[in-house]
Amino acid sequence: MKRFIIAFLAAFIFIVLWGWFFNGVLLKDVSAEVQSLFRSRQEIMNLFHWIIIGQAGLALAFVMIYASGFATGGIAAGVRLGIMLEILAVGARCAIYATQPFPAKLLVLISIGGFIEMIVTGVIVGAVYKSVAERTAQRRDRF
Amino acid sequence: MLFRPKPDFPWLISGHVVMAFFLTFLCAKFVPAGGARTGALLGLLVALVYVGAHLITFAVQPITNKILWGWNVGALIQFAVAGAIIGTIYKSSSPATRPTPNA
Q1: Residue A131 pLDDT more than 90?
Q2: In angstroms, rounded to a whole number, what is the distance separating the alpha carbons of residues A27 and A31?
Q3: Whether B38 contacts B87, CB under 8 Å
Q4: CB contact under 8 A, B56 and A44
Q5: Which of A60, A104, B2, B103 has the fewest CB atoms within 10 Å, i.e. the most exposed one?
Q6: Would an 8 Å CB–CB cutoff place A76 in contact with chain B?
């Protein structure tokens, strides 16, 4: 349970920071080109709690999947899970492109950012699971 | 205009093909022994990833509450049923459940 909570918190903090840096700083100008598809800044700020809840849900789901099927594989398994989940998200983005008038460039850039986000999340979650397991084993050997 | 007047079907279909392929791939890695229940559970966990993404979309795009919760409930049903189907097919074709030729 300890590993789960630490991994969730670490993944959540990274996803929040990356989301702010990638969408709020790097993609700011590209997103501004299609402002009509987005809410106004004031509206987004009023609904900001949904962004945080969504990112928490994402981190929670990632760690739950990792913990229940990939935990023995370490960092490599975390990276593999991240890549698979992001490819699923790219599939969903193709459906978004089919139904919403987003420029392809923006969706490609969002997908590149998504890959980085999910791979790093996989590394973080895998590393947390590995390091806590190693520490527990060391403590067991000592006693 | 938030939505296209008419969906671009080739992109819509290819997106779903990618999702189906990688959900199957994930199921094969996650539950090699198969089973409808475990497949459905994985489907629900994957749907949670989408629910998170939908909530973020709701915060930044002018979609209604009805669309948001429709998407969320739809994703939970879609992925749970798809996971159960994949799990059932994997279980029925796994070596442990396949009848031996001389039995």
Answers
A1: no
A2: 6
A3: yes
A4: no
A5: B103
A6: no
Give how many domains chain A has, as a whole number: 1
Going from N- to C-terminal start, the domains of chain B cover 54-94
Q: What is the spatial distance between Cα A48 and Cα A137, in angstroms, rounded to a whole number?
A: 41
CA–CA dist B10, A98 (Å, integer)? 8
pLDDT at B96: 53
Q: Which domain holds residue A63?
A: 2-136
Interface pTM (ipTM) of the complex?
0.89
pTM: 0.88
Judge whether residue A132 has pLDDT over 50. yes
**Does a structural domain hold residue A51?**
yes
Residue A143 in any domain: the answer is: no
Contact B49 A61 (CB under 8 A): yes
What is the pLDDT, as a whole number, of residue B35? 87
* d(C-alpha B47, C-alpha B75), whole Å: 6
Domain assignment present for residue A141? The answer is no
Give the best residue of B8, B17, B56 to mutate against chain A (max A CB count within 10 A).
Answer: B56
CB pairs under 8 A between A and B: 135
Average pLDDT estimate for B92-96: 61
Amino acid identity at B23: L
